[in-house]
Structures are given as C-alpha cells and as structure tokens.
Design goal:
The protein folds into three domains: 2-111, Chloramphenicol Acetyltransferase (2-Layer Sandwich); 127-380, Chloramphenicol Acetyltransferase (2-Layer Sandwich), CATH 3.30.559; 396-431, no CATH class. The chain is 36% helix and 20% strand. It has helices spanning 14-27, 89-103, 115-123, 128-137, 169-181, 186-202, 242-258, 264-271, 342-361, 375-385, 396-406, 421-431; strands spanning 2-9, 33-36, 39-42, 64-72, 75-82, 160-167, 206-213, 230-237, 285-289, 303-306, 318-325, 328-336, 411-413, 419-420. A four-stranded antiparallel beta sheet has the order 4-5-1-10, with no helix packed on it. A four-stranded mixed beta sheet has the order 6-12-11-9, covered by helices on one side. Strands 2-3 form a two-stranded antiparallel sheet. Helix 4 crosses helix 8. The protein is elongated, with a radius of gyration of 26 Å.
C-alpha cells in the first residue's frame, strides 16, 4: 500500500473534492482495476466516496481509498491510500495533481494511453538479450551483509524505523560539480559513495545494492497512472581513487539502465541465487535519489500542508534515500528495527556524511584514504593504539585460552547461539 496525506486549512467543499476523485478514477483504468486469480478486470467508471480505514480486497476493490477527516470547521486532513499493485510514487503525484486541478475547475486533456497498453507492449518485447546481461553481471554474487545488532530472524521481518540527516549545500553543490565533471548524474555519485560506505562497513570490495527506475522512458508515459517501477541491481568492485571508481560506477549504472526493461522477478529467476527466507534476493541495501513530481498542491482559498506519515515498514535491511531540497540533500535511512539499533544507523548515517564531505574536498584521493570516522572514534583508536606494553607473539587459540582462564563466564560469541569463553575454549579443544 502507498499512502500520502495533506492538511487543508480553509473553506473546503468536500462534495466538490469527492467529484474530483470520481473524475480522476474515470480517467485512469488502473484505478478501476481488480484482480481475480491473477486475471485483471477493468470496471466501468463509478462514483468515489470518502471511506473509512478498511483492508483492501483485490477481488472486489476499490484499490484507491481517499479518506477525509474533519479536524475543525475550517481544517481537514485528506489521506489517500492506494494498493501498490496499481500505482507507484510517481503515479501518486499525478493523481493528486489532477484532483487539485479538477477541484480548481480546470479542464484536463483526455489520456491517450492507459497502463494496460504499456503492459501489453512490455509483454510483447523480446527481453532475452537484456536477461543475458543480468545473468552475466550477477553471477556468483558474494553474501554481503551489514553487521547487525541482533540475530537475523529465520524469516524476514519488515518492522521499520527511519533516521534523517541533511547534507549541507556546501557539500551537495560540490558533489553536483563532481558529477558534471564526470558527465554523470548526482545519483551515480551518491551511489558510488554509498558503495564505499558499505565496503568499509562489511570489509568487502565486491558490493551490490539495489535501486529503482520509474519505468517511464517515454514522454507519453509521464501522466499515466500505474505501477511502472522496476528494481535494478548495481554491482561494482570498490578500488582505486574516487575519481577512477566513479567512472567505473558510471559505466555500470548506464549499462544497468540500458537493460532496465526486464522485471526484477525474472532477473531473480534467471540468476537463481541461493534463496533465504531471512533475506531479500540479490541485495540487502537499497539506494535511491527521489525524482518523482514534487509540485505543491494548490487549492483556491485553502492552505495546503503535507502531513508526515509514521513509517512502519522496511522492505530491505537498509534503504538510503536522498532528496534534493533547495541546495541541500535530505537523507532518510530506513532500516529494519529487528536487526539494527537506532544508534547504529545514526552512526552509519554520520559516517556517510563524513565520507561525502571527504569526497567533495578531494575526489582524486584513494578510496582507502577517504575519511569515515568521527572525531570521537579517531580519538578512541588513538588511545587504544597508545600502548607501551609489548604483546607476546601467540596464536588466536592461545588468546582465547588465556581469556577463558580470566573470565570463563563472560560472553564470547553471540548469534543464533551464545557461548561463554569457557564453552568456546572447550569446543576449540575438542576440534584440536
């Protein structure tokens, strides 16, 4: 389900607003669609009424549910919930824009294309060549997870939370300049930075992340309502200077978008990764730069204000979402709260900010030399290394044995099983 909400302050005509929704639903077949055993059924236009909060029924519909809550005589909250099978973030912007225009009394051009036309065109395309690209690019993917604070449940959960930050204009402007110099997009530069961050956190150079494409590669699709979004997998080897690595990532991103027409589900089926119900297939981290239409809704005589909805779902372990606002870059890191503590994600986000600052200052630097740690973390490292006591040469097994003698009941291993130092040492000796 996708949701959005706006606060309306002023003399609102609720009937007129409902009529606007009725006309928008009549304009777009996707909003009049139900699904019965996988068969798509488009229904005739019908009147739309404001409803209460109830579950979606794919067989009976409707799959668009506007709700109008009266807060005071001159204040309402309009909440719009739409099943994700018939819409995406871009489409939500189109729907809200048309509702506002019709409420204002404007006349809209009749749609010339419906989502079903796009779906038929996509079904008839020969995608074997594109699929071959994905099977070759994603062969032998390594298992790369961020270190988690809690054991991963046997079956993936979606309990979500979010941490937000701002990349200031000074850094964001410089990142845009670097992107232009490399003849690439800001997204590509941010993707490269996130890959480096993940490489440093996981200790692996072969990094894979997901991203999304809006699927609207033709201008006539810009005002069509439907689910066009597709997931792409971006893989690269983190190495060299940032400048050199950015050129590599630019080529990888360009190739991925050239082959964006293959539905993600078909890519997964073709690559055949080892399936694990505790993980999403192919990647665990999503990186997105939002570019959906962001025009502010306008109604005559009414003040319109966005309402921030509470986040309850995390579709991946971590999603790093950027959005340009003025000269700044807003960063929202959505994470699975069953895996990570809030402090861990706050530290990850802070490391990302430090890394972006370092890239902006010296993009020609070697990746291994780019800054990542906070001042406090650097001080701790210096203190830990500031020792005058010589360490004797010994094996890891000997270190464990000594620690087991000092603190036999202290926890040594945490994961699906917990072991004390005494238990760990006993198991090691049994294997020796």
């Amino acid at each position: 389900m996708t949701s959005l909400a706006i606060r309306l302050r002023g003399p609102l005509d609720a009937d007129r607003l409902a009529d606007a929704f009725t006309e928008v639903v009549a304009r777009h077949e996707a909003l009049r669609t139900t699904f019965d055993d996988g068969v798509q059924i488009v229904h005739p236009p019908h009147e739309v009424a404001f409803t209460d909060n109830r579950p979606f029924d794919l067989r009976r519909g409707p799959l668009i549910r506007p709700r109008l809550e009266r807060v005071a005589d001159d204040e309402h909250v309009l909440a719009l919930e739409i099943h994700h099978i018939v819409t995406d973030g871009w489409s939500n912007g189109v729907i809200l824009d048309e509702v506002m225009a019709l409420y204002r009394g404007e006349t809209l051009d009749r749609p010339t294309i419906q989502y079903a036309d796009f779906a038929a065109w996509q079904r008839n395309r020969d995608l074997d060549g594109q699929l071959a690209y994905w099977t070759q690019t994603l062969a032998e993917l390594p298992a790369a997870d961020l270190p988690t604070d809690r054991p991963r449940p046997a079956v993936r959960t979606t309990t979500g939370a979010v941490h937000e930050a701002v990349v200031p204009q000074r850094i964001a402007t410089r990142l845009r300049e670097i992107s232009r110099r490399h003849e690439t997009t800001l997204f590509t530069t941010l993707n490269a930075a996130c890959n480096i961050l993940l490489s440093r956190w996981t200790g692996q150079r072969d990094v894979t992340v997901g991203t999304v494409t809006n699927g609207r590669d033709r201008a006539e699709l810009d005002r069509v309502v439907g689910f066009f979004v597709n997931t792409l997998v971006l893989r690269s080897t983190v190495a060299g200077t940032f400048d050199d690595y950015l050129d590599t990532v630019r080529g990888n991103v360009q190739e991925a978008f050239k082959h964006q027409d293959v539905p993600f589900e078909r890519v997964v089926d073709a690559v055949q990764p080892q399936r694990d119900p505790s993980r999403t297939p192919l990647f665990q981290v999503m990186v997105v730069l939002q570019n959906a239409p962001q025009a502010a809704p306008r109604l005559p005589g009414i003040e319109v204000e966005d309402v921030e909805l509470p986040l309850t779902t995390a579709n991946f372990d971590v999603t790093i979402e950027f959005q340009e606002q003025g000269g700044d870059l807003l960063v929202a890191v959505t994470y699975n709260a069953d895996l990570f503590e809030a402090d861990t994600i706050a530290r990850l986000t802070e490391h990302l900010g430090i890394l972006l600052d370092g890239i902006a200052a010296e993009p020609s630097a070697k990746i291994a030399e780019l800054p990542l740690l906070t001042a406090d973390e650097l001080q701790k490292l210096a203190a830990w290394n500031n020792s005058t006591v010589a360490t004797k040469p010994c094996t890891l097994a000997e270190l464990v044995e000594e620690q087991a003698a000092r603190t036999p009941k202290a926890t040594a291993v945490m994961g699906t099983e917990t072991l004390t130092y005494a238990e760990l040492n006993a198991r090691a000796n049994a294997l020796a």
